[in-house]
Automatic annotation (TrEMBL):
Residue span, Thioredoxin domain: 547-672
Transmembrane residue ranges: 285-309, 330-349, 369-390, 402-430, 436-459, 479-497, 503-520
Signal peptide boundaries: 1-22
Subcellular location: Cell membrane
Gene3D superfamilies: Glutaredoxin
Domain of life according to the entry: Bacteria
Membrane topology: Multi-pass membrane protein
Pfam families: DsbD_N (PF11412), DsbD_TM (PF02683), Thioredoxin_7 (PF13899)
PROSITE patterns in the cross-refs: THIOREDOXIN_2 (PS51352)
Name this polypeptide is given: Protein-disulfide reductase DsbD domain-containing protein
UniProt keyword terms in alphabetical order: Cell membrane, Cytochrome c-type biogenesis, Membrane, Signal, Transmembrane, Transmembrane helix
Organism: Sphingomonas molluscorum
Length: 672
């Protein structure tokens, strides 16, 4: 009834805007709209993109093309010159707003809707093209709705289609907010549960791509219950979204937009099919707990944790027969591990709740954290190697709960770069579990990591089996520095992958400076000088500057064919001028169809040998991050998304557009 009343009032308001507007406080417009053209001089036969640049007043919102349980979509009334036609209105990804139990898909901040106008061929240069449009839209607060309209006008002139860099950058930013075609077909199934029905949508989406806070915005009206919660689960490369069906829904197709929580969104078209039911939480929680416990236990033999555990265990053996002290240290070490694991897991869940894609070790996606870990592990390795003495955390020094807690916290934090069996599946399952269950999984990981030391503290027989510390302990400590140095080397490699050669140089330079400062500190400690650690101050300052300065390098999709080059129109023109065939393909990491084609056809030995024999030049366009230049090239070839495969034969003016499903035979037999 609430939905019906709202819709009735909204429709009446749109039919009678004058009276409704007279009752609204703060006379509008509550959404300021301006019409912007990407170029004022479009070429004949070409297209020009217009933007409805909209800015709501604080507290007000506009509506998506499917407004949800309440609201009205924008309505356009065009007056165009002869020879010009308008395409559909393109909407950016909305936000969700629940008011009185009704789900609304809205824009609470600035947004831009785009539309493409097609010019007829043969228009004479200098022809004036007056464009007029009336935009009717609904603008609301949580208590009040007001219909508004904007009479917009812009005058274009047939010209050369030149676009200024400033205008190009502005429209590229607006295009980046639009959802992109997923490129892979989806399926849905209607599941009857008594008198109610649920809809399960299976969307192909690579397991390697994060979708920690995925949400499906339905475009097909009357198919899904908008206000019902959506349950998201993984099944390999399939993302399964399950929610309540709308009353009496019998859709033949479901279309919508999948927002992944990473800032990327994709248009999805699903046809009826079979979609397996996601596993229940009970078995998932149990398996995730067992996996996390086992995975945490295995982490103890990883090179980043084993040296710390070994020296702490030997220290516990050296502590003698104090059972109470051994138990205290074991509990403090376990507490340090658990607190760190729960803190990292809780931070990950908080980021997911805020709409940020995050998985376990999410902090390792930031090169600044990698550099911090690199310096920390380097310092630990140099300490174990005997370069200097660091009394806290106490690896093999005096007993104490504070030192054991700090050691456990350090072990857990340093363990995050390491991976082992069972952890991936267990922590991946935590992403789709309720908050308390997910935290229990992280606690299971911490318990597994702390379990060996906890057993040593509470089982005297195990401590008695440990060798007694002696002169050999120092040599062992030096040996155990080697896996820590290996971990530092691995972190430097990860830093290079994330931040490029420049970022890795920053990291190695900071580590070198840190090593020199620690060496100087060790010399001062050996001579008994007071304030031996003062050389660390400039080293820490430089390290802090390096951590703040390092930046992530742009991520690129991995080329599937050896010898490929990144696509650019300039490079394409150069290769075509050599008289050799060119194969250009356009892919993205989130496109399952693209990856299947690459694995089963493009990167096979047969295709590689055939291309080499024909002298084929291969160019790959990576659209993972929505490169606007590639987006314009795709549009120019009649495609809104990937995959796209083009074969350029020498002498031919236009390329041959290959099917979206490739085979090795098809590629190997292409004419040269």
């Amino acid at each position: 009834m609430a939905r019906f009343c709202f819709m009735l009032l909204a429709v009446l308001a749109l039919l009678g805007p004058v009276g409704a507007r007279a009752q609204a406080p703060n006379q509008g417009p509550h959404i300021a709209v301006r019409l912007v053209a990407e170029t004022e001089t479009p070429a004949a036969g070409d297209t020009v993109t217009l933007a409805f640049d909209s800015t709501p007043q604080p507290g007000w919102h506009g509506y998506w093309q499917n407004p949800g349980d309440a609201g009205v979509a924008t309505r356009l009334d065009w007056a165009l010159p002869a020879g010009m036609t308008a395409g559909p209105l393109l909407y950016p990804v909305p936000q969700r707003l629940t008011v009185a139990g009704l789900m609304n898909y809205v824009y609470e901040g600035p947004f831009a809707q785009l539309v493409r106008l097609k010019l007829a061929a043969g228009l004479a240069p200098g022809t004036r093209l007056p464009v007029r449009v009336r935009s009717d839209y609904l603008v609301c607060t949580e208590q009040l709705c007001v219909p508004e309209h904007a009479d917009l006008a812009i005058d274009l002139t047939v010209g050369d289609g030149r676009i200024t860099p400033e205008r190009r950058a502005l429209f590229d930013r607006w295009r980046a907010a639009l959802p992109r075609p997923l490129g892979s077909p989806a399926q849905f199934a209607v599941v009857q549960e008594g008198q109610a029905a649920r809809i399960r949508i299976g969307i192909p989406f690579p397991a390697s791509q994060s979708a920690a806070d995925a949400y499906f915005y339905p475009l097909t009206k009357g198919a899904l219950s908008y206000s019902a919660p959506q349950r998201v689960a993984r099944d390999g490369d399939l993302l399964v979204i399950e929610t309540d069906a709308a009353e009496g829904a019998t859709p033949e197709r479901i279309e919508g937009v999948l927002a992944t929580g990473t800032g990327q969104a994709f248009t999805v078209s699903a046809r009826p099919g079979t979609v397996a039911e996601p596993r229940g939480h009970g078995s998932t929680i149990l398996l995730a707990l067992l996996g996390a416990l086992t995975g945490g236990l295995i982490l103890n033999v990883m090179p980043c944790v084993f040296p710390i555990l070994s020296l702490k265990a030997l220290h516990l053996a050296r502590a003698g027969g104090s059972e109470r002290g051994a138990r205290q240290e074991a509990l403090a070490y376990t507490a340090g591990v658990l607190v760190t694991c729960l803190a990292l897991g809780g931070a990950m869940l908080a980021l997911r709740a805020a709409g940020v894609a995050a998985g376990w070790a999410f902090q390792l996606q930031d090169p600044r954290v990698i550099l911090l870990l690199l310096l920390l592990v380097t310092g630990v390795a140099l300490n174990l190697a005997g370069l200097f003495t660091l009394p806290t955390p106490r690896f093999a020094g005096e007993s104490g709960a504070a030192g054991a807690f700090a050691t456990g916290a350090l072990a857990a934090f340093v363990a995050t770069p390491c991976t082992g069996p069972f952890l991936g599946a267990a922590l991946g399952a935590a992403l789709v579990l309720p908050t308390l269950a997910a935290l229990a999984v992280f606690a299971g990981l911490g318990l597994g990591l702390a379990l060996p030391f906890l057993l040593l503290g509470f089982v005297p027989a195990l401590r008695r089996r440990l060798p007694r510390p002696g002169a050999w302990t120092g040599r062992l400590q030096r040996i155990l520095s080697l896996p820590m140095f290996a971990t530092a080397l691995a972190l430097a490699w990860i830093l290079g992958q994330q931040a490029g050669v420049d970022g890795m140089a920053w990291g190695l330079g900071a580590a070198l400076l840190l090593g020199l400062a620690l060496w100087w500190t060790g010399l001062r400690q050996a001579s008994g000088r007071p304030r031996a650690g003062w050389p660390m101050l400039p080293a820490l300052l430089v390290a802090g500057l390096a951590i703040v300065s390092v930046q992530r390098a742009p991520a690129r999709a991995e080329a599937a064919v050896a010898g490929t080059e990144p696509f650019s129109e300039a490079r394409l023109a150069e290769h075509r001028g050599t008289g050799k065939p060119v194969f250009a393909y356009f892919t993205a990491d989130w496109c399952v169809t693209c990856k299947v084609n690459e694995k089963t056809a493009i990167e096979t030995a047969r295709v590689r040998d055939a291309f080499r024999a024909k002298g084929v030049q291969v160019l790959v366009g990576d659209w993972t991050d929505g490169d606007p230049a590639l987006g314009r090239f795709l549009e120019a070839h009649g495609r809104a998304g990937v995959p796209l495969y083009l074969w350029y034969t020498p002498g031919a003016e236009a390329p041959k557009v290959l099917p979206q499903l490739l085979t090795a035979d098809m590629l190997a037999s292409l004419p040269n």
